[in-house]
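thread: overnight batch results

M.L. [08:02]
morning all. the overnight job finished for the chain we discussed friday. pasting input first so we're all looking at the same thing
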Amino acid sequence: MSGIEVTYSDHVGMIVIQRPPHNFFDVELIHDIANALEQFDQDAQVRSVVLAADGKAFCAGAQFSGATGAAASAEGKHLYAQALRIFECRKPIVAAVQGPAIGGGLGVALAADFRIACPEARFAVNFTRLGIHPGFGLSVTLPELIGRNQAELLFYTSRRIGGEEAFAIGLVNELVEQEKVRERAVALAKEIAECGPLGVLSTRETLRAGLADRVRAAVARELSEQERLMSTEDFAEGVKSTAERRPANFIGR
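M.L. [08:03]
and the structure it wrote out:
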């Protein structure tokens, strides 16, 4: 597998993203995470999963190949197909967010059931700052988690928030010291694993009923809008201004 380490202990599966320091993802990485989750689904000894990362960031977003036009569209479709596989997996996932989860990286974190973070963690859906539409199913997962209006605020401003604010608005479940994030995530996963596995799976299926279908419908629109907006002058300016660390001069076309 590329960019991840997969282990198992005490009924808890562990997936660690290993592309430090920023842990940018591409199609291959999301494919491998989905593969690992599907393998855990087939193993009755695994009752819960921890998704963690080595390095400064949990996941700082997507790193695409640089393709344009039809090739870029195909790449996006393949990426979202792999992301949907994550949402279709059956066992509870605890994300250990020790650092920034930005853009699609936040989408990865929100595919999990629970998030353990620290004050140093940073969260942002920074797509509109680039002049495009959010992706990775965030148009479903973020408002369902923190409420529509709070999600609208984060989407429309692209603002970055810290761990304490994320905890206050319900984006993360627990806030601990940075060096204890993974330890606490494992502890929560073990607590889940101590319960009857059939009951947990059945309850999760009820509570997440239709989620994968809602995400599937959302990513179809997300991808379509991203493709359209990536051809605009505003997107080019958004990428350039972000690289140059300055305010963008958007012109609305």
